[in-house]
Amino acid sequence: DLRKQARQLENELDLKLVSFSKLCTSYSSTRDGRRDRYSSDTTPLLNGSSQDRMFETMAVEIEQLLGKLTGINDKMAEYTNSAGVPSLNAALMHTLQRHRDILQDYTHEFHKTKANFLAIRERENLLGSVRKDIESYKSGSGVNNRRTELFLKEHEHLRNSDRLIEETISIAMATKENMTSQRGMLKSIQSKMNTLANHFPAVNSLIQRINLRKRRDSLILGSVIGVCTILLLLYAFH
């Protein structure tokens, strides 16, 4: 009876493990199809969340079956160790060992398939987050580039305005320095003229006399020329 129950559980486990392995394979294929959705017309029948729920359900069912099969094997071990079956002990031990090997193979296959499934899901989730970041960056890169371009243009305008202001200020400072230097030169010339006038008053008076005599000579010469002209006119008319 225990062997019959063990075989029944082993058959169920075999079917469950085959379905579990197919689920893992289909999960990977679904992820690949979703990754290439822009270059392929195929659409997965199940999405990721449905497959994840199915995985959890099947994993729990397989673990329960493994637990039941482990209990059956333990009961068979107790039966072979009982005192009432000494003559069949070797054959029963062989049968028990075979069922234990089957249980060990199923357990190993289950953990291997489960680990592969979890690794694929973790990798796909990581790649999905990376693709989402890349798509968000691409979608926002145009706006960011436009903003950056506008900021650069505005910065260039500000730099040009600053440069023009600096040039205007430098021109104003140079003009101020030139006017200051010219003012100093005029003051120095005026001071030199005042110094000369103060040190040489005789020269100043002499120059004034020369100017007065020159003006007097001009008046005398003009008077003589006028009288001579009148006399010539009178002589000519008479």
From TrEMBL:
UniProt xrefs under Pfam families: V-SNARE_C
GO-annotated cellular components: cis-Golgi network; Golgi medial cisterna; Golgi membrane; SNARE complex
Main localization (coarse): Golgi
Keyword Transmembrane: yes
Keywords carried by this UniProt record: Golgi apparatus, Membrane, Protein transport, Transmembrane, Transmembrane helix, Transport
Spans traversing the lipid bilayer: 219-237
Location in or out of the cell: Golgi apparatus membrane
GO MF: SNAP receptor activity
Gene Ontology biological-process entries: endoplasmic reticulum to Golgi vesicle-mediated transport; inter-Golgi cisterna vesicle-mediated transport; protein transport; vesicle fusion
Membrane topology, as annotated: Single-pass type IV membrane protein
Job description of the protein: Involved in transport from the ER to the Golgi apparatus as well as in intra-Golgi transport. It belongs to a super-family of proteins called t-SNAREs or soluble NSF (N-ethylmaleimide-sensitive factor) attachment protein receptor. May play a protective role against hydrogen peroxide induced cytotoxicity under glutathione depleted conditions in neuronal cells by regulating the intracellular ROS levels via inhibition of p38 MAPK (MAPK11, MAPK12, MAPK13 and MAPK14). Participates in docking and fusion stage of ER to cis-Golgi transport.
PANTHER family: GOLGI SNAP RECEPTOR COMPLEX MEMBER 1, GOS-28 SNARE- RELATED
Family that this chain belongs to: Belongs to the GOSR1 family.
The protein's name in its UniProt record: Golgi SNAP receptor complex member 1
Species, as recorded: Erpornis zantholeuca
